[in-house]
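stuck on whats below:

***
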Amino acid sequence: MHSSRRTFLAGTTLAGASLMAPASRAGDDRSILAAALLHNVYFWLKDPTSTADRDLLIQGLKTLADIPVVKAIHIGIPASTVKRDVVDNSYQVSETLMFDSVADQDAYQQHPIHKLFVEDCSHLWEKVVVYDSISP
């Protein structure tokens, strides 16, 4: 049974990765994520119980999708997954942005839309943690 499950999971993972590949590389076995920079940001609100503040932050984050160098965006809240020692779901909102390069991420940091987002929404959070990663 474990072998069938592993086979299924491996197949679905490969299928999902191939859907993310650009059409020009459809025959290539690398996904677009292999060349991308992922910018993962976690926000802790000043008032973690305020759904109004959470919604304002999410609304502000959605504006970042209009920055041309942003290739993909995911905005989320903590999932109701099994509690384990390695899982930190103490944040209220997260975002993951995908860029083609470090230079694009640098340009994003200086873009007027990003600066306006920080100006308009920074009063909502007490802590922000960023994890940037690229493929080795």
In short: The first strand starts at residue 37 and ends at 45. The chain has two domains: 1-28, 36-134. The two ends are 33 Å apart (CA to CA). Strands lie at 37-45, 72-76, 93-99, 125-134.
